Description:
The chain is an alpha+beta fold. Helix content is 28%, strand content 33%.
Amino acid sequence: MTENLDLSRIRNIGIMAHIDAGKTTTTERMLYYTGKVHRIGEVDKGTATMDWMSQEQERGITITSAATTCLWNDFVINVIDTPGHVDFTAEVERSLRVLDGAIGIFCAVAGVQPQSETVWRQADRYNVPRIAYINKMDRVGANYFRAVRMIENNLACDPVILQLPIGAEDYFSGIIDLINLKAYIYNDDNGENYTVRSLETEEIDQAQEYRNILLEKISEHDDEILEKYLEGQTITEAEIIAALRNLTVNNALVPVLCGSSFKNKGVQMLLDAIVDYLPSPMDIPPVKGINAITGEETERLTGWQEPMCALAFKVVTDPYVGKLTYFRVYSGLVKSGTVVFNSNKNSRERISKILKMHANHQEIAEQVGAGEIAAAIGLRNTFTGDTLCSEDASIVLESMNFPQPVVDIAIEPKTKADQDKIGESLRRLAEEDPTFRTRINEETGQTIISGMGELHLEIIIDRLLREFKVNANVGKPQVAYKESVSKQTRAEARFDKQTGGRGQFAHVVLEICPLPEGKGNIFINKSGGDVIPGEFTAAVEIGVREALQAGVLAGYPVDDVEVSLVGGSFHEVDSTELAFKVAGSMAVKELLTNAEPILLEPIMDIEIITPEEYLGDIISDLNARRGRVLGFEENRETRIVKGNVPLAETFGYATSLRSASQGRASFSMDLSNYAEVPESKSKQIIAKRYGLLV
């Protein structure tokens, strides 16, 4: 079956948006109209097919990306519904890494919101072609053209309007298609019954105006369309669609559509647009990677006759089958029961079963080929970002980068049995989620779990208690601070231990200097190969990196520093790797002490939507939280405040905001950067860290 599938008729797409923009609602309608489900699931009732986790159903939000496959006009559409909450941004990241196209969904009232910008930047990073769908045209305050302007201004792209809404809010009744200049009028809220009519007199001028804008935008990139347009020749619908498809696939334009998914208006036209404008696996460039043997860049062409190559992008724990590994096949065939090569781990693994997924429902498949997405059972040592390939044509594909966690919580198992269980449970959860980290606090012996926000850790703890049956005492959320240095300095350390037999000797000279934010920690050997042998240099690096795990101010991890090995000495007999590891660690502690260490805290971009009468109180409260107002926007009777605020000041902010606005204001946040903590605040944090009075 796979080998007979026409690759040009496959669409691998993702649904991405800010929380509450209508991603899952839109996906449910797509599944209904394609015949995948026979009843429309609703998010607010906890019946959505794609929100299958109990935590998702209870909260009415998407937490984990869910995959499914449906058919539309003989095209195979593989859909991944991604979360909209910033705490689960890793789910979006790994989905976009393996998708060919995406639909960005925007609320017609709120327009482009903070998380919309985040996921759009993620799609930019992977050059994913997109369609913009402006949803909720039936909502009070819906403004289609404002949302389009925000897409253009905030997302640094070139949107092109393909549809005009007929009416808005309660009067939203249909859609004008600018390509065929027809009006689609919905007769009821089911969306299946609509009539197609010619444009009425009062609609023609506006439709013709925006159709000309559409043709002009296409003409800027397509010489044939330009020539016809300038000469006044008729440009056919097929020519417009073909040109627009090419420009969308190449990320030159972003087609814009509209609708109301909840009222079942516009979803069928969105499905048509997916087929018409988003790329097939044949349209995307060959996937590039590194030849595992030669280290040279190589590529794989899309096709079933090519050597097998796939990327594992997600791992989940299934209560019935155990570990499930989701993967995207870029070339060749993956067959059930065969051995594949993990080029990242340099090891072989056997695929016992291949599954096609529909949310949490499974369908066994004998094989999958290039362009397809599936899940495998039996891959014990394969994790997110690993490449699976043929051993005789080994390749390592580009992996994924995930943000660092910003919130910590301490947990303590209640019994010895729980103590035994908690380590394995946390390990399995960390395998699933690359943004979830665990460590043991050496001072207190507590287990510290770290995540992207309060909600992220709340879900983790809920799963720990509910799925893994671990009873534990849970602490309060704490900010995941970092440490760094503010100046360059040099230090040396000598480890010389003689115990009668062979001794331990190492001597290193290290330099440290601060790096720009986001560079991470870098180790460079500037000493030359003659000063310290290579095997000892590697040991120094291990010692350095281990020492950077705990800074000298308050024991937080050190980040964004460059440590250079600039000198040292060794003994022909007494020098060991252990000695150089210890010496490297000793030198780092001295470096950190002398390099004017600083404490860093996460700063969040915040967007607050509030009625105007509460604006003053909300700004005053934000200022009191060390926040900064960066700008305002106006949308009818509401005001949108944009600013930033330290994460430490936002715990419990939702309750405070509800109180200040009588429940009428809302907010969203996204990690912006790490910044130095003011000295007075830094002293308080350090004192609290060590249990001292300020």
